[in-house]
Structures are given as structure tokens and as C-alpha cells.
Amino acid sequence: MLINIAAQLIAPHVGLSPSELSPRLEYPPQKEMGDVSLPCFTFARELKQSPQKIAGEIAERINASQTDIVASATGGYLNLNFKSVKLKSDIASAASQVNYGHSSIGMGKRVVVDMSSPNIAKPFGIGHLRSTMIGNALVNIYRATGHEVINVNHLGDWGTQFGKLIVAYQRWGTQDALEREPIKESLRLYVKFHEETENHQELEDEAREAFVKLEQGDPETLDLWRFFVDESMKEFRRVYARLDVSFDHFTGESFYNDKIDPVVHQLRELSLLEEDEGAQIVRLDDQGLPPCLILKKDGSTIYAVRDLATALYRKQALHADIVLYVVGSEQSLHFQQVFSVLHKMGFDWAGQYQHVPFGLMTVNGKKMSTRKGKVVFLEEVLDEAVQRALQIINEKNSELPNKEQVAEAVGVGAIIFGDLKHHRQLSVDFNLEDAVSFDGETGPYLQYTHARICTLLRRGNYDVLSGKYSIDGSHLSSESSWECLKTLSRYESVLQEAVKENEPFSVARFLLDLAKDFNRFYNSGKIITDDADEAEILSKLSLAAAVANVLKHGLSLLGIKAPEEM
Ligand code: ARG
Q: Which of 128, 154, 325 gets mutated to test ligand 1 (max ligand atoms within 8 A of its CB)?
């Protein structure tokens, strides 16, 4: 908002249009440099003048033309300070609107987000949690910026691992145990399988044969497979309900079974397929990549060819303009290979298909490996976070009526925020105790700030969001209120930035800035006092309400609830 105003004002003086100028404007890191600044270094060569001189001359001209904004020049920067009282009330009232921050930059673009995608018969791991939360936040942020979004759960419900599971189940499993605890029992069978293969190599062959049978549609094997899928899904759905995440499509890898032959056929027609020790591959030497395996020696399909069929389907049936694959960075090579094969097939649209990678997450220092059975169970992590949240609530506000419900929102929110507050590419060691704390850079801190404002508004009994009152910007003249307003004014561009970088982190960071600014404002002086006049109280409460509104909105984009009391 401030950048737009600044761009309008400065543009005529530098011979650029406001939209050309906007990307060059900055929010300076230090308050002393004003509210918005323009580095003038890039103009220096063109105009054959020093940046200092250019900044100084523009400042003079701006100051001569109006009084709402004061311009100054320091060290090659043109700095603007906004003085308009009306601007303050404009920001506060805009930020109180329901869909404040929304834009239509994505209008007409359809985005498919491939996210979560856990593997059937394996635990829902922390990596899948990251994909679910980053994916869910991106879905919400893309929608808020006008994109049409379809989110897809590309369940890992096909592949050699089902051969292993079927063999293990037939040898060591029972229906009863599997129905009781599908994931834990599948995991036990899976681990047992790997232990046994150390001395019984032939088990691997049996598993391969079982998968070939599955791909050929053997009814008994298929029934068994369906049983595994159905049981696992029950457990996954429970996790999704808790995280409040939904999917437009639950099309796992098996969905593409009948769409693979045409891809293989096409690859062959294009002479891209090559035989290599019995297997079918596409060479990618010219891209500096190892070959992409398409079919195994026994003719069975693999992950990569299923992804090729998936990619085509998303273009042809879903009409995707952009596809985002929210998948851990350990799969970077896989996606480079898949995208390269698509390019070789002549599909230029593959340029709009992007891997959105993220780093590894450990919980309290523990890594996981499904094969060895070393697993951090997501539901246990969630339960523990909720327990801790409940403990804190019991200490702080034991009278709270719906404690359990609030603790669930706080515990789950703590985990989500603990993830999203980092650049997604970073590896994160997740410390539960820190994440659930109400102080520091945590989800509960944001929720608590929001709840505090709700309490303040209830106490004053002012229905500030009704729109009945007009905000008088002259009562928002303190430095701390201006910092709050400035931060609020950035929201729309923060959401657009998050889209550009595919980084929910931008929103998380912004919310922390906003909460900190608000708490500084709030701690700088009582709002509801006997000697303050009503217009002043209302203006300050309106600012608080606007902050609460944006906190709640931003949290909901990240997939976090904002209780009104906690
Ligand atoms: N199920 C896979 C895994 O857990 C992730 C799938 C990601 N999506 C895709 N289209 N390959 O590793």
C-alpha cells in the first residue's frame, strides 16, 4: 500500500511508470531511513549524476508539490515519511475488512498442488506432515491471491513395497491385528520383512513376483491390496481431520495404472526409450542427469513413470497452468528427471511444473527410518503438544470453559507454526517445549496476542468491527501505532511475495512482526482510561481490532486456528 503510494508520487520524477518503479522501492530496515525508500544508485549511470544528488533533487521537487509526505535524501537513498492522518485511518479501516490482503494477481490461473501424499501401510511421517502443512498454506495463499487451486493427495498406494507387504502378511500377519492397528501392524510386517531378507534373499524375488501379480490384476492380490489401502486411509483421515486439511482429489499412484501404457507407447514412438540390461530407460546424459528408469526388467512400473502419467493427466484432464510438487528435497533428482523427460517429449508446459522442496525435520533430535522401524508417530507428537498446551492453559487461565478445545488448537497450531516459521529448505530440529511456549517466536504467542486483543475488545464492550465508528487517524500518532499500521499495510504484498517464492515462511514472519509491533503499542500505554475521550479510545481499539483481524486471517492461511480466549 505505502509502496504503491510512493510509486505514484515518485514515478513522474524518474521517467518510469509506477508499476515499473514499485519493485525498486524498499521498506528500509531502520526507522531512521523513513517509511519507504528508493535506492538511487541505478539511476546514477544513466543520468551521469551522483546518487546523492539525484535523491536530493527528487526530494526537493516532492516537498514542493505536497505536504502529506516528507521526502529527504541520505547516502544515495530517497526516503519518504508519510504524515497523512487520513492514511492512518485508511489503513486501519482497510485492515479491518474480512478479505483484507486478498488480490487477483492469480486470476485465470489454475494451480494444482501435489501435497501430503503419504505412503499406504507406512506411518504418516514428519516429512509428510511438512508437505501437508506447507502445501496447505500454499493452497490457501494461492487462493487468497486469486488463483484457482486444486489440491491433490498423490497417495503412495502402488509400488514394489506392496509386494513386500503382501508376502509378509501372508507369512506372518493376521487380519485381526491389521484391523486393530493398521499402520503399526503394517510397519511391524515391513520391518520383519527387511530383517528376514538378510538371511533369505529369495523373499525379495517373491515380493517382486507379488507386485507383478498385482499389476496384472490378480483378484486375490488386489483384494489384499485394497484391504491395506482402506485400513490405512482410516488412520490418515483421522490425522487430516485433526489438522483440518482437506483435498479436492485423493488420486494416488494407483489411479494412473491405466494411463501408463500410453506414456510408454509415446516414449517409444519418439524413440526416447532404450533397453538397458532388460529394463526400459530414457537417457538424460545431455542434461547431465542419470537415466530415468521407466519399466523394470520384469515389466513392472516404477515411481517415475507413474509421475509421468500423472503430469500428463494434470495437463490434459485438470487443465493445470502451474503444478507445484510439495515434496522433500531428497527427491530433487527424481523431479529433475521427470521434468526433463517431459521436455524431451516436447511438452513445453513442463516449464510450469515445479518441485517445491523442503528440508529434513527431526523431532527432539530423532530422525526416522521406516525400514528400521524407528518412527516418530505424528499422532503421538500432536498428543504431546496438546498435553503441554493444556498444562500451560491450566497454569495461566484455569477457569477457561472450553479448555480441551483450546488446547487442541494451541498444540496443533504450535506444531504447524514451528514448521512454517522456517525457510522451507532448511532442516529443522523440532523442539516441542519451545514450540508450545506462549512467549518467543511461536504459534501460541500469535494466538495469545490475538486472544488478548479479543479480551480487550470484549472488556471495552465496543463493537469496533461493526463499521459504525469512524477511525480518527489523529489519535494514532504515536510511533508504536504507526509501526503497527505500516506493518498492516504490507499484508497484501507479503501474500504476493509468498506466492512468488512458494514460501509460507513470509506470512509466518510477517505475523510475528505484526504481533511484536502490536505488543509494543499495547504496552506503551493503557487504551481504556478515564481521561481519554471516546474518539481516542475507539481509534486505538479499532487499530487493535484490525491487528486481531489480520492475525486471525494470516493464521488461518497457515492452517492455524485463533481461539478468542486462551
Ligand atoms: N509418496 C511419496 C513419498 O512419500 C511422495 C509423492 C510425491 N508426489 C509425487 N507426485 N511424486 O515419498
A: 154
User: Residue 279: beta bridge partners?
Assistant: 276
Q: Domain ends where: 65, 83, 101? A: 83
Pocket residues: Cβ below 6 A from ligand 1:
114, 117, 119, 154, 156, 307, 310, 325, 327
Whole domain around residue 8: which residue ranges? 2-83
Domain-embedded: residue 36: yes
pLDDT for res 29: 85
Q: Find residue 301's DSSP bridge partners.
A: 295
259, 434, 520 from 305: Cα distances, Å: 10, 42, 55
Range with the poorest average pLDDT among 113-117, 180-184, 209-213, 253-257? 180-184
Any idea what the CATH number is for the domain that residue 433 is in? 1.10.730.10
ipTM above 0.90, yes or no: yes
220, three cell numbers: 486375490
Distance 154 CA to ligand 1 centre (A): 6
Q: What is the pLDDT of residues 96-138, one digit of tens each?
A: 999 999 999 999 999 999 999 999 887 787 889 999 999 999 9
Q: Report the alpha-carbon distance of residue 83 to residue 80 in Å, rounded.
A: 10
pLDDT digits (tens, 9 = 90+) for 384-394: 999 999 999 99
Q: Whose CA is nearest to atom 8 of ligand 1?
A: 154
Is the pLDDT at 6 greater than 80, yes or no? yes
Question: What's the pLDDT at 79?
Answer: 96
For residue 249, tell me if it sits in a domain.
no
Give the C-alpha distances (Å, rounded to integers) separating 126 from 131, 133, 359, 428. Answer: 9, 10, 11, 11
Model pTM?
Answer: 0.93
In whole angstroms, give the CA distance from residue 547 to residue 551: 6
Of the pLDDT bands very low, low, confident and very high (cuts 50, 70, 90), residue 465 is: low
Q: Is residue 430 part of a domain?
A: yes
For residue 75, give the CATH number of its domain. Answer: 3.30.1360.70
Domain tally, the chain: 2
Sign of the alpha-carbon dihedral angle for 319, 305, 129, 185: positive
Indicate which atom in ligand 1 lies nearest the CA of residue 303: 11
Evaluate whether residue 523 is within a structural domain: yes
Which one of 83, 110, 144 terminates a domain?
83
- pLDDT confidence tier of residue 178, bands split at 50, 70 and 90: confident
Can you tell me which residue has the cell 503499542? 521
Q: Which atom of ligand 1 is nearest to the CA of 127?
A: 4
